[in-house]
Amino acid sequence: MVRHAGRKNSRSGVIVILAASVMLAACSAGGRGGKEEKESAVASEPGKYPIRAEETLTSWEPMDTNLSAFVTNLADSPFGKQLEKETGIKVKYTHPADGQSKDQFNLLIASNNLPDVIEYNWSGGNGSYPGGPEKAIADKVIIPLNPYIDKYAPNLKKLLEQDKELDKMIKTDSGNYYVFPMIRPENGLVFRGPMIRKDWLDELKLDVPVTIDDWYTVLKAFKERKGAASPFSALYQNEFNIQDAFIGAYKTANRYYIDDEGQVRYGPVDPQFKEALTLLRKWYAEGLIDKDFALNTDSKSLDTKMLNDSTGATVHLLSGGMGRWMDTGKKKNPNFQLVAAPYPTLTKGERPFIGQRDFKYNPAASKAVSDASKNPELAVRWLDYAYGEKGSLLFNFGTEGDSYTLNNGTPAFTDKIAKDGKYTLQQMISQYTKPNGPYLGDSRKNFNTFKQQDEALKIWSETDAAKHVMPQFITPTVEESKEIAKLNTAITSYKEEMFIKFVMGKEPLDKFDEYVKRIKEMGIDRVTKIYQDAFDRYNKR
């Protein structure tokens, strides 16, 4: 039986949780309660399914918003039932409310009642576990997975042996594997960007905007000639979720990024960030940006604005945004059309400095095994199923003969999924697959139902994001993580408070230098140095 070296029968010490800029501390008591680990459920050969386990696992994970149209729990979906059938493992799921994952995660960690596995961002980046995976392991919240992967996860182990880049991504500098990762295929790295109502542009005889000046012209026309209450809107989830659109035109970012010399920088204190704020402030004052943008914390509010003609442009997802809105919008208005716009620049012909481009490893949708798990071996075997051939087909396409068929070895969604008269493709797929989560993504999977989506991928890929997006999976040491936990959350909270005030005009931009000075006093140079050191160590792994 593999046991985690150094683990105790009870978790001890203070787990520091930062929520809404308030530090919560909780002393967490034992997960194993002194009981012996169970051999019976994992006695069969790893990699062989179904296991027919008697024990029920518990999993805390977000549920796809599309799935909520059908069920309230993943276990009740066709996917959940098929996964249980194929693995032989019963799972009880708990789902945080849409838009409340961070707050409910913090409450979960402080509750002293952890499930077997937790799907969350453990990387240490913005919106993740404070201090990252080394801190989570030191806090006795999650366990290092090295011995478990080696003995009980042959599918993932094989992938890591074949893909050294992926292997480097999902472990800490000390060599601890800490999650079962969501692995994106190469054609799944870009999936979000600016989009705009093409039917409105055609009606107003305007071209798709390319530069900042173009955008001003278009948004002003949307307000004055189309009567749009909020010409531009976007989700607000811990920050204005525009993937640095508009801000990137000034060669900076609303986050940590890598500059042209390979150095980590904190964009919100760059001198040119003031120029970006000046632009957004002007647009907000003129009613071109949603006056309630900071209240758009869940997808439903943005859905309403996009589909009732209140908003004509946003930055959002390819499938969960553009495709879903096109499906729904065309039923009400046959002319409804969304198209991608390039990430805007100051000068026409200039290549965008940054935009959305992720890495093959997606920390936000990966699962860790908690220190409270009474049977981590069973949890690991359950998670490993998603990386084998049969498991990957289930997670990507669902059940053969029901949600997909194989045509000369190539999976294709059935008409039941692709041509339902009531529900969108994204909604139907959400019932039979797991759109996001820890599994091996398949490049043959395509959610696109409109040619505009295929074109969007090409347009949004034309940026220098690959050079400038800082990896979210670099791992500071435990001591460094403690510093980050102490400094970074307070800095981010203050930055975001001032961002909203600057954009809304509640604070004059004359106070920008004072704001930068305050952030420097709060320790931003130290945090940047820690990230630089971690980035350098990552590059040397």
TrEMBL record:
Signal sequence segment: 1-25
Keyword field: Cell membrane, Lipoprotein, Membrane, Palmitate, Signal
Taxonomy, superkingdom: Bacteria
UniProt keyword annotation of Cell membrane present: yes
InterPro entries: Bact_solute-bd_prot1, SBP
PANTHER family, sorted: ARABINOSE-BINDING PROTEIN-RELATED, POLYGALACTURONAN_RHAMNOGALACTURONAN-BINDING PROTEIN YTCQ
Protein name as annotated: ABC transporter substrate-binding protein
Species annotation: Paenibacillus chitinolyticus
